[in-house]
Amino acid sequence: MRFAREGLPFMWAAAALALAVIVAAYRWPRPAVIALAVVSVALAVWVAYFFRDPERTGERGPRLVIAPADGKVVQVMEVDEPAFMHGRAIRIAIFMNVFSVHVNRYPVSGRVAYTHYNPGKFINAAEDKASLENEQSSVGIETGAHRVLVRQIAGLIARRIVTYSRPGDQADQGERFGLIRFGSRVDVYLPVGSVPKVTLGEHTSAGTTVIAELP
Length: 215
Description:
alpha+beta, 2 domains, 3 helices
């Protein structure tokens, strides 16, 4: 299985801890030490599971918008987006839990025309105000005649957003552009007139699920 490279230090640290505790349990086979060894092994397995990075395929096309994240759709609504869309936009918000794949993917193909990182708070990413107040990283893509913005938002546990994109980069639909360590949410802003293809509560798969169609 493929793993995100940003997760390797965490995986090695968790594996080293598990190995140390297993050695301790072998030398001092007391119930508490054995229980700690079991917990440390479970933690190491979970950390590796968290940073998994499976290959994804699915429908592609210039009018299709593909899910940038695994998770549950928590918002489909029209909002103001002044930074890149410069007006009204349709926002589709996807909330990732700690069991989701956390590698994020481009929802459309085009040219990266805008990037912006904003440090902020770490409130529950499922809350609406998280899109304004939390740590976040935005990537704006010009695709044909349209603009699409994808925004990674940190959450209650997440403390590190990774974004590979730089202005001028080529965005390829379904390809990786970053990840959020330990949780959170990804919002996609689409031009008004786009047709959402997902509903509240629906689960998405990054790089696979079609979440909308552009005008």
